[in-house]
Amino acid sequence: MRIFPVILSGGSGTRLWPMSTPDHPKQFLPLTSEDTMFQQTLARVGDPRRFAAPLIVANARHQALIEAQLGGRDATLLLEPAARNTAPAIALAALAAPHALLLVMPSDHVITNPAAFQNAIDAAVPHADAGWLVTFGISPDAPETGYGYIQLGDALAAGVHQVARFVEKPDAARAAEMLATGDHVWNGGIFLFRADAYLAALADHAPEILAAVTKAMNTATRTGAVVHPEAAAFAASPSDSIDYAVLEKAARVAVVPVSMGWSDVGSWDALAALAVPNEDGNALTGNVVTVDTHNCLIKSDGLRIATIGLEGLTIIAAGNDILIMPKGCAQDVKKVIEKL
Amino acid sequence: MRIFPVILSGGSGTRLWPMSTPDHPKQFLPLTSEDTMFQQTLARVGDPRRFAAPLIVANARHQALIEAQLGGRDATLLLEPAARNTAPAIALAALAAPHALLLVMPSDHVITNPAAFQNAIDAAVPHADAGWLVTFGISPDAPETGYGYIQLGDALAAGVHQVARFVEKPDAARAAEMLATGDHVWNGGIFLFRADAYLAALADHAPEILAAVTKAMNTATRTGAVVHPEAAAFAASPSDSIDYAVLEKAARVAVVPVSMGWSDVGSWDALAALAVPNEDGNALTGNVVTVDTHNCLIKSDGLRIATIGLEGLTIIAAGNDILIMPKGCAQDVKKVIEKL
């Protein structure tokens, strides 16, 4: 049976301001290659022998962006009338394809080793077919505090484990401990399961979400491949993540650890880590002139940027805005957003 | 007798790129106050009891800027058809007002203590009336290598000295020596002399300049208060500074040392030194948002600049250009200009 990709495009993308904005969040920007991360996500599930046309769950304001970046490719658009986090978003897709095997993926991640991802999917499929809710756990290479962790439990098969427990974003000490154990992986927000298994788990653990989203889909309007769930019903759903609402409570949850060059590109520092530097250590995009400048990430969508004697800065120009900060400060972009 | 101010507006202003450009050099920008340096220069000689309407020697391409910034004030414009340095430029003014006492000033300097300047003029007038070519020497407060120096000779009167010698821009060691002697001042390019005394000195020491400029003025066209010296004749003049062509050779050259808060605003570092910082040590102009940022000079004429965690940078946005460098690197702006 072919897998139905479910691409979640719900992020508001403020952490990559000023390039990423609520009207044009990061998944629709060509930040890591000539293709956008949304297009890279599509390409990852582009083999028609293996994957059906994707279901895209997105903010209604991004419809035009999505249709432009689909470039004529078949897809079903499920346009959220309001943001209610991942549990209701995935429920929309499950109700749209209730007999399918769903591969749920964020639209704004980078995977540099797609073959490893496909192998992990292969390992997961039998368990998802058998009714397990399968997560993909990213093998950690640093004590990151920005991700949730999953502790591996007993093995179900080669490379597939029961989930022992989910761990919320840790502090630095706890992250270092988990990295040292070797049996914790990052929760990357990628899942494989049968739609009916997910809906059954929702019925058990988050019945209000299931009821609201079911009502919204039963009264949805559809134009071609674009589905508009009914707004008031959808808005009545509790807002919750699939992790909290379902996975931490469900009985049969599995995890497939995978090392696939994954990044959530969650900050300019994360993007800098992905960039390929020139001989000066700089990663430059757009109209940039450097003198005695090293180890900088500089991107411009139009302005001409000239630098002299800089070391280790991130400089991002977009539209009428320019952001300047040392690498390592990217988490403070939110402080700028608050001030604006 | 009233003094005729001669305002020289010949600089191309590349050292304050990107705000200053050949079409809009620094004297026409409000960099140090709400008034431009050109307007500040006009105001310095604005007392009609003491000063006649100014003679402005300028690049013809700046006529509209000058007329706008004059704001209806009387002035004679002497529009240079080509740049030939200060000796020919001042000769234009001397030939336009051959019986006047001329106070020659660059249009792009800052003087924060204008009363001290007026007192220095008072001290200089009797000697200029007597036929001396009088320079104003800026009392040095640092071993600057970017200026020429003048060594004080015998006193002619209180606060007025013969010039012992002119010294070209020194290296750092020589600058420190001169600062230590206490009898050297900076050559600020400000002069007071009778027009006929200057023309006589030109005849003695730079007759080709005098001949060319005389021919250009004899065949000039005049429209109202705007004089266009004849282009071919003026272009035939040697290009030389008043210092080299006349002052270093003439017999009766005097210097009036003065401490008047002078700056030639010759670089972004010089401008940073003039700026009044806020409580974070930052001098901010325009649409700027700072987080954890200290001791920076940030100016924008339109773009919104956001900074996080920066220390001691100069950031200048003008039009479609932005320049970013540490304070202390301003002399390297020319390297950027070469690359563009």
Overall description:
Two copies of one chain form a homodimer. In chain A, α2 links the parallel β2 and β3. In chain A, 48% of the residues are buried. Chain A folds into two domains: 261 residues, Spore Coat Polysaccharide Biosynthesis Protein SpsA, Chain A, CATH 3.90.550.10; 72 residues, no CATH class. Chain A has 340 residues and is of the alpha/beta class. The first copy, chain A, has a five-stranded mixed β-barrel with strand order 6-9-7-8-12. Helix content of chain A is 30%, strand content 30%. Chains A and B meet through β17, β18, β19 and α11 of A and β17, β18, β19 and α11 of B. β19 of chain A pairs parallel with β17 of chain B.
Major β-sheet annotation of chain A: 5 strands, mixed, barrel
**Assembly category:** homodimer
Determine the strand fraction of chain A and express it as a percent band.
Answer: 25-35%
Query: What's the count of strands of chain A?
Result: 19
Structural class by SSE content of chain A? alpha/beta
Averaged pLDDT of chain A, please?
A: 96
- Going by CATH, the architecture of the largest domain in chain A would be Alpha-Beta Complex
Most extensive interface: pair and counts?
Answer: A-B, 30 and 30 residues
Classified by CATH, the class of the largest domain in chain A is Alpha Beta
* Overall number of structural domains of chain A: 2
Summary keywords:
homodimer, 340 residues, alpha/beta, Spore Coat Polysaccharide Biosynthesis Protein SpsA, Chain A, 2 domains, four-stranded mixed β-sheet, 11 helices, 19 strands, globular
